[in-house]
Specification:
- The protein is mostly beta strands.
- It folds into two domains: 3-158, no CATH class; 162-243, no CATH class.
- The chain contains five helices and 16 strands.
- The strands form two sheets. Strands 1, 2, 3, 4, 5, 6, 7, 10, 11, 12, 13, 14, 15 and 16 form a 14-stranded antiparallel β-sheet that branches. A two-stranded antiparallel ribbon has the order 8-9.
- Strand 2 (31-38) and strand 3 (41-50) form a beta hairpin.
- The two termini are 35 Å apart.
- The structure holds zinc ion (ZN).
- Residues 13, 15-16, 18, 103-104, 124-125 line the site of zinc ion.
- Zinc ion is lined by residues 13, 15-16, 18, 103-104, 124-125.
């Protein structure tokens, strides 16, 4: 895959139009948050750390969490990564990683044990790369480390997953809120739709688990038009999928 295509695919949420936030996850380890500091130059800083044996997660407001910094320069057909700290660089090579964009950081929900999950109800829009890993190559008489897609069959995939959530707000505060979530999995070539609705009193219960409808279909042939002007039509289409099952 071209990481550059992933980074430049879109920068605002197709649903709410807010800017997207970029992250890099080391699988089973730390998550880094990026900021764009110059055109095509991203600075990644430690955002969440998985603690070794206990598997609990620490957010960066804990002073005991080591802060690491990495710069990523997108050069189009290739890119450079520079770690501030040599041990962090050596450590980084052990992990598979993936990058993802999320519309709203409120979508991060820390688990009691382990790491975090993305709550799409709050997050609105998410997209991620396939798994990648560092590989050593010999070029120009030296060993160079490059980041490659782990599964070569996925080398042409820009987004591995692309997920949306849509809410049909009730006309009155007491009414039913209808929630639709759609995930496009470009690796499995599958579309999954989840749907549920809640009443006002259900929404007020902290741990309420709504009855979830789930349907898997082939990958959509065309991109989802998710803007406000297309929303009504889209929800009608999603309702059609639900009725047909
Ligand atoms: Zn959004």
């Amino acid at each position: 895959m071209s990481l550059s295509q992933f980074l430049n695919f879109n920068h605002t949420c197709p649903i709410c139009d807010e800017p997207l936030h970029l992250y890099m996850q080391q699988v089973g380890s730390s998550c880094f948050e990026a900021k764009l500091i110059e055109p095509n130059l991203y600075e990644f800083n430690t955002f969440k750390v998985m603690k070794g044996y206990s598997g609990t997660i620490e957010t960066t407001n804990n002073a005991a969490v080591p802060q690491e910094k990495m710069l990523l320069l997108d050069k189009g057909n290739s890119f450079e990564m520079k770690w501030e700290n040599a041990s962090a660089k050596a450590e980084a090579k052990k992990f598979q990683i993936y990058f993802f964009f999320l519309c709203n950081p409120a979508g991060f929900v820390d688990k009691v044990w382990g790491d975090y999950e993305i709550n799409l109800y709050k997050g609105c829009y998410y997209r991620s790369t396939p798994f990648m890993e560092y590989q050593k190559k010999y070029a120009n008489n030296e060993d160079v480390w490059t980041l490659e897609t782990t599964n070569k069959d996925q080398a042409d995939i820009i987004n591995k997953d692309e997920a949306y959530s849509f809410k049909q707000k009730p006309a009155t505060p007491e009414g039913l809120e209808r929630v639709y979530m759609v995930n496009l999995d470009y690796e499995k070539k599958a579309t999954t739709l989840w749907h549920y609705s809640t009443t006002e009193s259900e929404r007020k219960k902290e741990n309420f688990k709504a009855k979830l409808f789930e349907k898997e279909m082939p990958l959509l042939g065309t991109r989802i038009k998710a803007g406000p002007e297309d929303r009504e039509k889209l929800l009608e289409r999603l309702d059609g999928w639900i009725m047909l099952s």
